[in-house]
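Schema walkthrough. Field components (list of strings):
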Amino acid sequence: MESQDLRNVGLKVTLPRLKVLEILETTKQRHMSAEDVYKALLEMGEEIGLATVYRVLTQFQGAGLVSRLSIDDGHAVFELEDGTHHDHLLCVRCHQIEEFIDEVIEQRQRAIALEKGFEMTDHSLYIYGICQKCRQDKD
Amino acid sequence: MESQDLRNVGLKVTLPRLKVLEILETTKQRHMSAEDVYKALLEMGEEIGLATVYRVLTQFQGAGLVSRLSIDDGHAVFELEDGTHHDHLLCVRCHQIEEFIDEVIEQRQRAIALEKGFEMTDHSLYIYGICQKCRQDKD
DNA sequence: ATATAAATGAAAACCTTTCTCATTTACACC
DNA sequence: GGTGTAAATGAGAAAGGTTTTCATTTATAT
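Field assembly_structure (string):
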């Protein structure tokens, strides 16, 4: 019952919102750009505007339904929020994204913010590299 | 003798390059966007094109003279390379940037890349928050 | 049912960054 | 010290992702 998910966060239940949510939930690829979502919807035969996809994703982010990753190349991808904070490894060849959690790093970050007098609002850690599969393919 | 710095990295010594280098070295603000550098040069009375500033900064980055930070909002700033790897704290109110080094985090990152089979090429860590000064000003 | 505020789609606008191309410049060589 | 040649520059156009505008459509409260 996805409609309720939307109502819970104070968003009107509209077809575009339901469809975007559906794509995010059913696509195997966990990390999708707005363009990815848009194309997936077109392929489903849904009529939707790219601007709407951007708007909906931004609203979802504001509502805590998704989080937005800002990749180094000035590109954003979205992932369904699952409540766990995690960081990311990005393959610079195939652009696959893996996730990891490291409590030691989390702790150090909090300590550093404290040390520097910062009230931490957010943090982001990206490790860029060549993933195992790409290294095997042609090293 | 900045001309030598340029020759050392295999770049022709041109006025625009010398001027960009001069701005980076003499401006108090350590982290500057291409636009910042461009405006600073115009204010100095230098005639330079914005495209040239971008090109020069990118070349400097390739030559290891500067590093580029990609801020979350799809904005890049440059800093003179000083040989030390460090990460950044960014104030979301005043946009001031502070630097820190944490060997524990560096180590964990290497360990995680290894665990995941990644050959790490780069990594970036940003802590976003409200800096001490901004917290005092109006909390 | 209906009124009303919110949401949508298409296209234009935006913003930072890169590219194109004609002109200028630095540097190696004479 | 001139001079040829490849590289660098500047202006403006183009690119690419994202946001805005505005007329139209839709969801929801009454």
